[in-house]
Amino acid sequence: MIILVLLATAISYTLYANFLQKNERVGAVGELAPDFVLKDLNGNEYQLSDYRGKGVFLNFWGTYCEPCKDEMPYMNKLYAEYKDQGVEILAINVGETDLAINTFASKYGIEFPIVVDVNGEVQHAYNIYPLPATFLVDSEGKIVKYYDKPMTEEMIREFMEQIKP
Amino acid sequence: MKNVKCECGHVNPLGTVICESCGRAVGENSKTNDLLDMRYEGTARRSQVRNQTIIDKIWNFFSSVKVGVVLIVLALIASAIGTIFPQEMNANLDKPANIYYEEKYGWFGKIYYLLGFHDLYSSWWYILLVASIGVSLVICSLDRAVPLYKALKKQRVPKHISFMKRQRFFNQKTVGNTEKLVVLAEELLKKSRYKVILDHGSLLAEKGRFSRWGPYVNHIGLIIFLIGVMLRFVPGFYVNEQLWVKEGETKVIPGTDMQYYLTNHKFLVEYYSEEDNEAYKNALEQKGAIVKNFQSNVTLYKASEKTLPGKNPELIKIKDDEIRVNKPLTVDSFSLFQASYKLNEISSMTLALTKKETGEEFGEITIDLTNPKDVYDLGNGYLVYLMSYFPDFVIKNGEPATNSPFPNNPAFAFKMVTPDKPEGEISFVAIQQNLEPMGENQYKMAFKNADFVNYTGLIVRKDLTLPIIAIGGAIFLIGVAQGSFWQHRRIWIKEDNGDLFIAGHTNKNWYGFMREIEKIFAGTEIPIPKDQGLEKEKKDTTNQGVDSVG
């Protein structure tokens, strides 16, 4: 009897640990978003946990990523609209050159903060697949959704609504 | 629960087939005169006796050897199917797995993914299957080993004659002085390293009992092995990550919880040359270059404090090291192995501002491709603005663009400001290309040279489960040896009114046992047992012969 209980415990723990590991791999939805500190091109630091109380639209992007180019204008437009409603956009560049980012940002007139993940540490922490990759973080700092496909304006709007505090 | 009372007055638990005390057959068995089934000493096994509660049912299910074999076969089949397509972790997917398998292998690939075959060792049902094998091993063993152990421990020396008669080895003989013969037998058996106990004129000689524990020791080894494998899923026990570091770059070592950082100073490939050894000459001529050494010169650092991803902590140098193939750098329980490399990525390019007509140069600019500047001042009114930079240049939709952030095919758009042309001229420079999109220029950016860097590809590994797996394997082998190379042999001798009875039992190698008995008792009056099993077999075969004729 005791033996059966022990065995059952061992097995359930293994399964549980395995699920944890699986979740870690795709940015655990429902878990706390891994905190990070990144700098923008002017050297200003942005820390995710400073955004507690606000929804954060966390977008990983690169200048070479075609869907990213399409999404940027929508994000720009909706950023202006949702900023006052407590939703921020933080765009994490995957570690390109300042020149490339600057050229891109001025071409699209980007208003929201762009930070650079120079060593890829944040990408590793979130374990992202190829771009684009978007995480929706709610006002409590939890990941609500992970989305790895191109987004339309309506989708972005819907996402913003989801994390509005 | 009902118990079974033997003729001798001993009360046996339900399910017993051979009386614990005197050895008489009890229950169904007592009606025939066939040889006794001596497995598990005829004791009552839990799984044979109880079948009321759910716990009993689970116990009975897992205690069946058939179920165990089926589980093992299922696990084998699943593992075999898992090899049809590459596993996710080995496949270097360029797409998420849910898309990849369907796109590459069609509907079968989709099912393969949905059933979790793409990542078999982490799929819940596979883990459950392997865990069930473990449970089956534990329960099978306990169900049998515990009653067997008890029975052998408390076995009584005097056995009823019916017990002896129904052993495979048995004989009886009327002799003169039985008491003297029993004492002689004791002496002879002790000489052959039997443990002998005398009790009321009965004798029990036994050796090699521990061989009976072989299979269970074997199972314990297997269970430890399985526990080791399961521990891989427990965080902190197992790490297997890739780390690419460019020369000159410092990166955090993945899997170390951001504790350790590594700088790659240089990656080098060395080749064998004829100077190493005259004898190499032929081989080198045939094969061309043969690599002698892959090596990364690195420095290991420890972070002074735990930081968040993206923030650079203060680094404390631990050591300089050279990582070669099979000569990993080790720190704590981590090992960094040389696994891969990438050579000759362009790190910087040097170009000269040149007047086309005269070829006169007005200075050189060196563009660091990881950090290009937007303006390079050459003095005397000569300026070069870097307007855009495309590391992996392609034309997409008629516009210059980049395919990736890696400088595989760098291209630049320059604006050259000179005293002649203060408003500037636009030049587009790619490898072996020079475009002038805004019309004919007087100046050009002429390519001078490029510098290259190498990447080293390391594998970060930590495996605390290996010692456990090794111990499990060792115990497994001890169990195998224990069960295979030794036999549990027992001899019973009993005197009764001038008759001397002898019976023998072993768990294997009956032939060798008989030879041993013959040798021990040679030249004495002690009867040598006859192999009743052999006689029965003969009878069976003759009967079969008759049957087939009939």
What report would you give on this structure?
The complex is a heterodimer of chains A (165) and B (550). Chain A has five helices and seven strands; from the N terminus they run αβββαβαβαββα. By secondary structure, chain A is α/β, with parallel strands linked by helices. Chain A has a seven-stranded mixed sheet, with helices on one face. Chain A is elongated. The model of chain A has no long low-confidence stretch (mean pLDDT 84). Chain B has twelve helices and 24 strands. In chain B, strands 4-5-22-23-3-24 form a six-stranded antiparallel sheet. In chain B, strands 6, 11, 12, 13 and 21 form a five-stranded antiparallel sheet that branches. In chain B, a hairpin with a 7-residue loop joins strand 18 (411-417) and strand 19 (425-430). At the A-B interface, helix 1, strand 1, helix 3 and helix 4 of A face helix 2, helix 5 and strand 15 of B.
